[in-house]
What does this fold into?
Amino acid sequence: MNDLDTLILFGAESSICADVLETMHRASIKAAASILTGPAEWDMDGIGPVVQAENIPAQLRETPFVVPWLAPGWRKERNEAALRLGLKPIDLLVDPTAVLPRAITIGPGCYINAGVVIGAQAELDAFVFINRNASLGHHTRAEDYVSIGPGATVAARVRLGKGCFIGAGATIASGVSIGANSVVGSGASVYRDLSDNVLAVGNPFRIAKTGIAGYQGVGV
It folds into this structure.
């Protein structure tokens, strides 16, 4: 499904880049270059040649980029910076161990990590990030910049609003809608709709905060 040999890592200082590199290794994709947009969060082993954003060689400008950032707001900022530089996003980066249905709609720039399982007729809009071993049910839609944490279970016919963040091991019941820029904390179990810009935690869940900007205080 990955129809590329090389790609650019834009924002390679993020520690989640280590997982992205493992997916690239399993899919036989090499890092053509890495663009740093801030201080390093990890040792950055294997990121390939580091290139300054303002000095990207002409021969690399046709190489697709991926932004290895889990936080929706930070990922959006870096995606937009890359687009302003004239770079083009990947169509899709999917780990070979993920299970995708025959019937699925996927927008540009999405990343699907190892062990993910997605049900039939699911829809992923642009720049969705699904972390390892997460599960999405049939007819579920994830809007732009949604992030889903490791081991999260999103049941059937769920709508995940733009820029929302589903924490590790969280469970979203069938038919539920999660509002834009809302955050579902790790291990939370959500069984009814959430409005925009709220933080839900616990099992059973409760609304811990309203009016939040988004995960890590940054919305999309």
